[in-house]
Predict the 3D structure of the following.
Amino acid sequence: MSNGPAGHAARSITVRPKDETAGGGRPTPSRTFLHTADGVRIDAVYDRGDVVYDTLTSRSDHVAFVVAHGFTGDVDKPHVRRVVDALLPYGAVVTFSFRGHGASGGRSTVGDREVLDLVAAVAWAREQGHERVVTVGFSMGGSVVLRHAALHAQSTEAVVSVSAPARWYYRGTAPMRRVHWLVTRPEGRLVGRYGLRTRIQHRGWDPVPLSPVEAVPRIAPTPLLIVHGDRDGYFPVDHPHMLAAAAGDHGELWLEPGMGHAEHAATDELLARIGRWGVERAG
């Protein structure tokens, strides 16, 4: 497992000036409902992006980033849209609301069946003509991109997991104890539904899904980047170190000084580095 920021992107890229797009700004995003293999409707948005490659002949050469948000997020949350804006200079971006979140149907299973939501989103990115897809997940979404890559071998060209847990049922920090109250208690699920626009299933996992640290060794040879803040208040640094150890030599670990948790804590500079890493590693 290597450490430190990514090197320079292998492809030369330029950013299209705003006046080259319709109306002097970015192209209007496309929005639709996707359908998962188990019949859940998923609210999804496709932003085409700003980047032009020197060798570009068709959209197939244009990287698509598929962003998997954290628990209680959705496609319209400002912190999710900020991630989109930061990645658009490097490729197209597909965002979606996990089941039970925002306008999507179903109920949250807190990282289990959400893999099916990501499968649908990646397929939609492919349908837009993109042959190179990079998944980028945050917190719960970070665990989902790891499990997706393990369970659907080489379905993407690269994987980025930010602020993800290494193991399930972690209650070692106050924020995670609050999350467990939201998920496991009836009054917590009411707060989730009406206060956070997140509908959570009342049943526990049966069976318990493959954990992130169990998933990571199955991801090779797909390039993997693990990003974590050294001031993460949800999952301390033993989590990324466990993931890094499980990944071995096929992944990279960026332990970010002063960074907290997930999308809210990711700086524009970090997101830009992730974008460049994705373009380089996706080939």
Notes: The mean pLDDT is 90. The longest helix spans residues 114-127. The radius of gyration is 18 Å.
